[in-house]
Amino acid sequence: MNSKLIALSGAGLLLGVSAYSVLAQTVAPTTPPDPPEFPAQSEPVFVGISDILEFKALPEYREPEWVTKKFVETGKLPPVKDRLPKEPLVYKIANMPDGVGVYGDVMRHVIGGRPEGWNYLAGQTQGWGGIDIGMMECLTRTGPLFQVKAEELQPMPNLAKSWEWSDDGLQLTMHLIEGAKWSDGDPFDAEDVMFYWEDNVVDPNVTPLNGASPATFGEGTTLEKVDDYTIRWTFTKPKPTEYLYSMAYGTFCPGPSHLLKPKHPKYNPDMTYDEYKNAFPPDFMNWPVMGAWVPVEYRPDDIIVLRRNPYYWKVDEQGNQLPYLNEVHYRLSTWADRDVQAVAGSGDFSNLEQPESFVEALRRGAEESAPARLQFGPRTIGYALQMNMSANGWGEPDERGQAVRELNRQLDFRKAVTMAIDRQRLGESLVRGPFTAIYPGGLYAGTTYYDKASTAYYPYNLDAANALLDGLGLKDIDGNGIRNFPEGTAGGGDIEITLLANTDYNTDRNLAEGVVNMMQPLGLRIIVNLQQGPSRDALYQSGRFDWQVLRQTEEIATVVQRTAQLAPTGPQVHQFHRAGKDGTLDLLPFEQELVDLVNKFVGTPDLNERAEIMKQFQKVYTENVYAVGLTQYPGALIINKRFANIPAGTPISMYNWAEDSIIRERVFVPQDRQQDYELHPESLPGEPGGEGPVT
Ligand code: BQZ
């Protein structure tokens, strides 16, 4: 290259460098704009946990008359007092918005998922939409915490009715409810708890639904049985109270070990782990549960019907055994149809969570004749573009996939992507109006631990974004509008990135398409991989994705729920960075910082210190664009107007989904509003594996 050219190129380089450094100035993050005002339509009445429930024996108990007449008096069932634990869980009337309920009627859910089988301990989904939440009961409970005073906030007792810490804070002794029974009459006890822990969480060959792993409860944590109704946790650091949240729905909900153990390879050498997982298909009726309702009928792609659990271990203060509702339906349809049916009155419940349905739902809900109440809550739903951050083999990428992951791990690459996203336009593409807010990533604005000053936001700036990719040496060598991998990487071919998205939701699909369009001017070719729920879950859990559009709920909205998932705190915990084949996590320095902050948060009881830790977390997370926030918005609870005891201000998603938070076992329909929707009136579940309900 002659001296002039060198000079020019030098000058060009200088210009380039100076232009790049000028653009780099514009790359400096700012703080995000305040979300448009959108007050939730009603606020909860804040109470203490002891205002909601207690465990105690009552002088007498009652049940639906037809149960007494057709089952107790005929000797098919013991009297209700013998079907209840010594001290049942008692819901207090003062916390029931409409007081003591009456028996009868049905809650008709519509869901977009499909049941794979009943073995949620081994990772099978039952179709979501509240069906698993209503069948399984967990050591603690958190959904209803949205109504609990901040100063009393801690997971509610449930199957674990009380607990105490050792003086050094390293041990937690939990007392299980005594004398409760599975819906088939088999006793519930520590054997069920230890089977879940040892043979489903700790056993590396099993991955429970919602992905509980030993790290969910802290690396090195152990659990032991003390006696039939006492278990003891031993932790590696004092009083990690966060883990009480992990003992709630999704991550510590024991299954019926009397059915599961005989199918588990550890106890039955004739069974494989795959056979164990699939041992109880959806047509296995009367699957024993600790929850309020038992599956008694299954028609593929049509409906799952559940009937009241005659051994349910919860009552109201007058001794009425719960639930009040005799039956629950799960119509097997789509998530969008759930909204339509709830608004139209042919369904009874929906979490209005897809902004594309907001306007029509609001219009219908505003009509005097509307069969359902529609109530917006806080902005606790949101989506992010998550990049696979593993470069040591998680998901076994090919050369192209590996090259993408190497790019994902470069801050300038993530900054370029985030600045190529026009969040205002993206939000408005879903729904116009004050609903969606610009979401940079990290903790959601308006939630407990959010701090705006700690939130780095890289505003939409296509020039700066392209300059960053130029700075990474990603050039469009062949002039086809797509940048190429660097020479010697993935054959120097076009940069093609797969984007995994859940096709069960219009919102997931629309946001994925939005990302594809907004990456084009950046010279990146994005190929959407639309997958239905279970296969999407399987692909992302196994790391077989480059990027994914993912809806983020509990941990991003509350921090205290699913805290472990906020960072790669263990090999199999995080949504977009898990261990490679060698079992190690190749964390980047800022990721290690996030892990340390999350672990520090878990071990810190002081409220002010916790808030400070989460400010640092938010700063490190958003400055490093750990995930590219897309949009955040409120959800609305749609419930048919005939139901009573729906707590005011119930968010559709916070500590858990609304199916948990409204406490369905206390929900009832006043006598004069009851409909004859029951498909199996005056029947109860039959024998596990039997034909279905019995009368
Ligand atoms: C709510 C929820 C109850 C899972 C599921 C579904 C799965 C995910 C997530 C939501 C559905 C509804 O969400 O969308 O409104 O009823 O079931 O569990 O998205 O694909 O894996 O995490 O909860």
Structural description of this entry:
This protein has 695 residues and is an alpha+beta fold. The protein is built from 21 helices and 22 strands. The strands form six sheets. It has a six-stranded mixed sheet, sandwiched between helices. It is globular and about 85 Å long.
Attribute tags:
695 residues, alpha+beta, D-Maltodextrin-Binding Protein, domain 2, Dipeptide-binding Protein, domain 3, 2 domains, four-stranded mixed sheet, globular, disordered N terminus, binds galactinol
The CATH superfamily label of the largest domain reads Periplasmic binding protein-like II
Give the N-terminus to C-terminus distance in angstroms. 93 Å
- Rg is 26 Å
* CATH secondary-structure class of the largest domain: Alpha Beta
Strand content: 15-25%
Oligomer: single chain
Task: Report the principal-axis shape.
Answer: globular
How many H/I helices? Answer: 21
Overall mean pLDDT stands at 94
Main sheet summary: 6 strands, mixed
The neighbouring-strand order within the major sheet is 17-21-16-20-18-19
Ligand names: galactinol
SSE blueprint:
Layout: H1 3-27, H2 49-52, E1 53-55, H3 65-72, H4 80-83, E2 89-91, E3 106-111, H5 131-135, E4 140-141, E5 156-157, E6 160-165, E7 171-176, H6 190-202, E8 222-227, E9 230-234, H7 243-246, H8 257-260, H9 273-277, E10 293-299, E11 303-308, E12 314-316, E13 327-332, H10 335-344, E14 349-352, H11 358-365, E15 372-376, E16 381-387, H12 399-408, H13 411-419, H14 423-430, E17 437-438, H15 462-471, E18 496-502, H16 506-519, E19 525-531, H17 533-541, E20 547-552, H18 554-558, H19 589-602, H20 607-623, E21 627-633, E22 636-640, H21 658-661
Helix pairs in contact: 1-15, 13-15, 19-20
The protein binds galactinol.
The site of galactinol has 10 residues, from helix 17.
